[in-house]
Amino acid sequence: MGYPTQPPHDPYGQNPQQPYGSGPQYPQQSYGPGPQQQPYGYGYQQPTPPPPPKRSNLGLILALAIGVPLLLLGGCAAIVAVLGDSTSRDRIVTEADSPNASMPATAPSTAPPRKAEPSTASVGGAITLEGFEGLKMAVTLTKLVDPATAGQYQAPKAGYRLVAVQLTLKNVGPTVYSDSPTNGAVLIDADDQQYQSSFQDVREGQGFGGTATINNGDSRKGVIVYEVPKSAKVVKFQFALNSGFADQKGEWTLS
User: Fold this and answer.
1) Which of the two residues, 100 and 180, has the higher pLDDT score?
2) What SS3 string covers 220-242?
């Protein structure tokens, strides 16, 4: 006894089951490189995504169209400003050559400072001299002793003699005078040779004794001694305040 053969169709209208190895088969999905086949029947394809939209260059074009002319205009304006400034400077220098032109108030003066000319007097005359910080003194050359007599324990060196100049210093300014008068006193001979004061003492007068301090309205008197060659003829005496550094000089003629 054997099994009955199956009818050509099953009760539900389906095709009879195909034996393995025969009939149509579904294609298998490939996992290798390249496009993959779809596992769902014939004629079906996966939809392709749309391409990305193209970027617009409108903004860049507008930026270049506006920015480049502005840059060119700015560069031209800077060049014009520099050229205008250079032209203005040239014009100022050129106009300064005109007899009616004047230099700017801020321009520094290139002329050397003018030195004060010494005031002059003779023996017995007074000269009012000015110094720093309001110092003002009336200086009088009251006496010239030539030759002068050396003190008891001193004598000039061989071939020299002593000359004494007696001064009276009066403070006529608001600043206190405090200085050594001998520092700013110079004796000059006929050959324009000048001599600095000596530490010699003479019998014809008393020295200032170093530094003198003179208040407003007060005065001091003393002699300044010089040691000069016996053949020299003294002709001038110069004196300046502030140890000789003041601009104004007083000059007395001695013969």
Assistant:
1) 180
2) EEEEEEEEEECCCCEEEEEECCH
